[in-house]
Amino acid sequence: MDCFILESADFSRENTHTSVAIEIFKKHWPVLVLAIAVGVIIVAPAFYFRYMSGEYRGVDVFRGGGESDWVASIREVYDGNYWLGNLYIADGKDGPSAVRQLLTTWVVGFSGKALHISTADITIAIKFVLPSLLLLLIYSLYYKLTKNRLFAGLSAVFTLLIPATLGFFNV
User: Cys-Cys link to 122, which of 112, 142, 157, 167 (CB 3.0-4.6 A)?
Assistant: First the structure.
């Protein structure tokens, strides 16, 4: 397996998996902090309006796109309609989905069911976890290409946050 984690580890001596993990953490800990910070930045508005704002009345603010449909399909998985036939009408709920991608909905839906949390809570958790993991993947790509931790970290942050910033300012 040829990836930055194995290249950054020292295999010259007998290492256990724990010591390799500690060595990787010591070398790449700033990117883990950046990943957590990016996750917090992305999840902060949804978290604030859902849990901290006194004005929340049960209606989640979706960023657009297909997020409301995605949350509805997660709700269907919670309700036991795993094939996601029709999300909004009772007729055809048991039929197979013609065009939907089921794997992501199943992973998120079954994870939420296993953790016994609501659809809104699992979507907020996913809004934190997935951007953090994506930042780590982008960092590993840039680090593999350049071998420069600073450049890789900053490039990964800009790759994730610049589109959101430009969208916020309608540029």
Answer: 112
Tell me the residue type at 142: Y
Q: Which residues contact 141 (CB under 8 A, 6 or more apart)?
A: none
> Does residue 136 contact residue 35 with C-beta atoms inside 8 Å?
yes
Say which residue, 6 or 82, is predicted with more confidence: 82
8 A C-beta contact, residue 160 and residue 127: no
- CA 70 to CA 53: how far, in whole Å? 24
Q: pTM for this structure? A: 0.74
Contact 158, 38 (CB under 8 A): no
**Which is nearest to 75 in space by CA: 50, 112, 129?**
112
Count Cα atoms within 13 angstroms, Cβ side, for 105. 26
Q: 67-79 and 102-115 helices cross at what angle (nearest 10)?
A: 60
